[in-house]
Amino acid sequence: MSDSRESVTGQCIAEFLGTGLFMFFGTSVLCAAKLAGASFGLWEICIVWGLGIALAVYLTAGISGAHLNPAVTIALWMFARFEAKKVAPYILAQMAGAFCGRRPDLSAVPQSVRRL
C-alpha cells in the first residue's frame, strides 16, 4: 500500500466502517432479543457476532488490513512493524466506528430497556 495521505485516509475510513459494521451486528442481536422477548442463547448471539466480524474482515482486509480493534493495531505496531504514524489514526477511526455502529441501537431501544 502506498504511504500517501489519501491512502491512509481510505484505510481509516475502512477501519471506521468495518468496526461500525461488526458492532452494529453484535449489538443489534442483543437489542432485538431484548425487545422481542426472545430467549436467544449464547450460541445464537455468538453466530451473529461472528457473521458481523467475518463480513467486516472480508470487506476491509484488502484496504486496511482489517484490524478492527485498537488492541490488534497496537499489537501489530509492537510486534509486526505496523507503521507508527498510522496507529493513532487507526485507533481513532476504530473508536469512532464502534460508537457510530452502536448508535442506531441506542436510538431504537426504549429507555426502560437500556437500563437492563
What structural keywords apply?
mainly alpha, 116 residues, transmembrane helix, Glycerol uptake facilitator protein, glycerol channel activity
Proportion of helical residues: over 70%
Give the CATH H-level superfamily: Glycerol uptake facilitator protein
Look at the helices and sheets and give the structural class: mainly alpha
The CATH architecture can be named as Up-down Bundle
Q: Kindly estimate the percentage of residues that lie in beta strands according to DSSP.
A: under 5%
Report the span from N to C terminus: 45 Å
Q: Give the CATH topology.
A: Glycerol uptake facilitator protein
As residue ranges, the low-confidence spans are: none
Number of domains: 1
Describe the structure.
It contains five helices and no strands. With 116 residues, it is mainly α. It has a single domain (7-111), classed as Glycerol uptake facilitator protein, CATH 1.20.1080. Helix 1 (5-36) packs parallel to helix 4 (84-108) and helix 3 packs antiparallel against helix 4 (84-108). It starts with a helix and ends with a helix. The model has no long low-confidence stretch (mean pLDDT 86). GO terms for molecular function: glycerol channel activity.
Kindly summarize this structure in a few lines:
The chain has 116 residues and is mostly helical. It is built from five helices and no strands. It is a multi-pass membrane protein.
